[in-house]
Specification:
This protein is α/β, with parallel strands linked by helices and 633 residues long. 46% of the residues lie in helices and 12% in strands. The protein contains 27 helices and 17 strands. It has a 7-stranded parallel beta sheet, with helices on both faces. Strands 8-13-12-9-11-10 form a 6-stranded parallel beta sheet, sandwiched between helices. It is globular.
Length: 633
């Protein structure tokens, strides 16, 4: 058996694989240190943002270790779509890869198993529930006994944690990898995990001796915009129309909704408005759901309207926007979902609209869940953190990164930075609503919801008002100078700072919380931003979207002839992708095509050094690429 080389030589070997197989000259960020550590047999926990290159952190070591005689790398992946795309991309790059999942027939699965035992596969993708079956473990035992089990890569590792945003019980069984194959290194990877989730991953997977690598969570190419929900779907339509005005309708996007019914309604509304939109949720027939996902990966300009059932493992690099029509459950989920935009590094938008009812609905779901009180308290804290992000008037990115323990400076590329909101002193109004909540409960012996409290403040005569004689309260009509929208915005602010609590178990009634004391006694001020939904505009790095697609890797604009060459290369790529039944980006990324259009290579040697063209792709497609480019010389 060949030994892995010392550290310096290992890194040199890894860099050689990166260039030869994947066509890239250098690693990004902490990738170099990670791949060297894992290639040498070290365990690792890797936290790296979506689009940061997590896959290379196990694919490069897998190739290095296989070439050194160490055998098979098993990649644990929760999604069939991700397995198909990653295996397709690896085969295109000349790497022996395969998957085992329910999409294979019995004969096909047995053929993969035979290849696996014969040592003909470098990377094998499998779902966690398959990996822990007696049959699969027996296959791994056979490889392990012969010294041919090289590495375990556990992707989407946050799924093992009950504190994560996408807990999957089957991930808990992966502890068997440490217990049964103690000498085989493991690398666990995720894009999102706060301190609590990280600690849980380490404990559940027994990675106490593993090195932890934490990349910056910053995605500077994404512009974060959060607006108050007024007319919901009409706001979404205005946002998407603005997006498509920059791209002549070619932008792909994802719209997240909370319920299946809402998904269907919004997808229909977008289609009626002339957009190419499809629904995706767990209630669709599996074949139809798969068809919609395949179309999203392969078609330009398609908008997927989905529940959170859609997205994890979606590698489409050119998603230009992610919109949330309802507020997610926590910052981890929000970050993971928005991170599906702009994986190619180009400018993208993350847009969210939210309102008081979103907060109430999320709290009700937490309170009505069968979970233990301790668990519910953690979930409430995570929801409060997201609400604080939404209500904040300072830089979105500073708050978002701060949640993950990363310090940063104001970004200049979020809605609050581009157009700082006007703040008003709402302390007196806050005292009015807090006093009203207190006096209503004191007078009636029971609590009421937000709608009735606002009716009292605004002096509205209603049937309920007469029934409980609340028009006689001292707080009746003292807030008639404010609109209901303003009162709702203030109430969200008070919920965010834990001055008001919503009792979801009792008809969403309002109660004073600990934070009310200082406000009522004059020890704390309340500042509130004036709502404005006019989109922020700037000429900075995240704004010129259409121009970003027409520039070479060096930042220089493409000429007319070069843009025509780019269009021809895209048309050729689309044809190849259809023939291979793969998404176009698996053949070549847009950045590679722009480099080809700008550099106008004339010989096979000219293709060397163009990012994204490894040895196998140069052999497979080099002549055709040169043929297409030659027409524009």
């Amino acid at each position: 058996m060949i030994d892995i080389a010392p550290a310096g030589e290992t890194l040199e070997t890894c860099a050689g694989v990166l260039q030869e197989v994947f066509g890239y000259d250098a690693f990004r960020g902490p990738q170099a240190e990670i791949v060297a550590h894992v290639s040498e047999g070290g365990d690792a926990l890797v936290l790296m943002p979506t689009g940061g290159g997590k896959s290379l952190c196990y694919q490069v070591p897998a190739i290095v270790r296989e070439r050194a005689g160490r055998g098979l790398t098993v990649v644990v992946s929760p999604l069939i779509a991700l397995m198909h795309d990653q295996v397709g991309a690896l085969l295109e790059a000349g790497v022996a890869a395969a998957f085992l999942n329910s999409s294979l027939s019995l004969d096909e699965a047995q053929q993969v198993e035979k290849q696996m035992l014969r040592g003909e596969i470098t990377l094998l993708y499998a779902a966690p529930e398959r990996l822990t079956t007696p049959r699969f473990l027996a296959l791994l035992d056979s490889l392990h006994e012969r010294g041919r089990l090289s590495l375990f890569a556990i992707d989407e590792a946050h799924c093992v944690s009950q504190w994560g945003h996408d807990f999957r019980p089957e991930y808990r069984g992966l502890v068997v990898l440490h217990e049964r194959f103690a000498g085989v290194p493991r690398v666990a990877l995720t894009a999102t995990a706060d301190d609590l989730t990280r600690a849980d991953i380490i404990e559940r997977l027994q990675l106490q001796e593993a090195r932890t690598f934490i990349s910056s969570f910053d995605r500077p190419n994404i512009r974060y915009t959060i607006v108050e929900k007024t007319d919901g779907t009409q706001q979404l339509l205005r946002f998407i129309r603005d997006e498509h005005s920059h791209s002549q309708g070619h932008d792909a996007g994802i719209v997240y909704c909370q319920s299946r019914k809402r998904v269907e309604e919004v997808a229909g509304l977008l289609r009626d408005a002339g957009f190419n939109a499809l629904p995706y949720h767990a209630g669709l027939e599996p074949a139809l759901r798969q068809n919609h996902q395949d179309r999203f990966l392969r078609e330009e300009g398609l908008i997927m309207v989905a529940t959170i059932a859609f997205g994890m493992g979606i590698d489409k690099p050119d998603v230009r926007f992610v919109a949330h029509l309802d507020m997610p459950k926590n910052i981890e989920g929000y970050y993971q979902e928005t991170g599906r935009a702009g994986r190619d590094g180009e400018a993208a938008n993350a847009w969210m609209t939210y309102g008081l009812q979103d907060v109430v609905n999320q709290r009700r779901m937490i309170d009505e869940s069968p979970a233990a009180d301790e668990f519910k308290q953690v979930l409430r804290g995570k929801l409060d953190a997201l609400l604080t992000l939404a209500e904040g008037s300072d830089c979105r990115r500073v708050r978002l990164l701060g949640y993950f323990g990363e310090a940063s400076e104001p970004c200049g590329n979020c809605d609050n930075c581009l157009k700082p909101p006007e703040l008003i002193d709402a302390t007196e109004a806050a005292r009015k609503i807090l006093s009203c909540i207190y006096r209503v409960q004191q007078a009636s012996g029971t609590a009421f919801g937000a709608g009735h409290i606002m009716d009292i403040l605004r002096g509205k005569q209603t049937e309920k008002m007469a029934q409980y004689a609340h028009h006689k309260l001292s707080t009746f009509g003292i807030g008639d100078d404010w609109s209901e929208t303003q009162w709702r915005a203030l109430l969200r602010q008070l919920i965010a700072r834990e001055a008001v609590q919503v009792d979801a178990a009792h008809f969403n009634t309002l109660h004073l919380a600990e934070g009310a004391r200082d406000i009522l006694k004059g020890g704390a001020q309340v500042w509130m931003k004036q709502a404005s939904e006019k989109p922020a505009r700037s000429r900075n790095k995240g704004s010129s979207r259409s121009a970003a697609k027409d520039v070479a890797p060096d930042g220089q604009p493409l000429s007319l002839a070069e843009r025509e060459c780019l269009d021809a290369l895209k048309a050729w790529r689309a044809e190849v992708a259809r023939e291979h039944n793969l998404p176009a980006f698996v053949i070549f990324h847009d950045a590679t095509l722009r480099a080809l259009a700008a550099q106008q290579p004339r010989t096979m040697a000219d293709l060397d050094g163009i990012a994204g063209i490894g040895q196998k792709k140069r052999e497979a497609y080099g002549a055709e690429v040169l043929r297409v480019v030659s027409a524009f010389g």
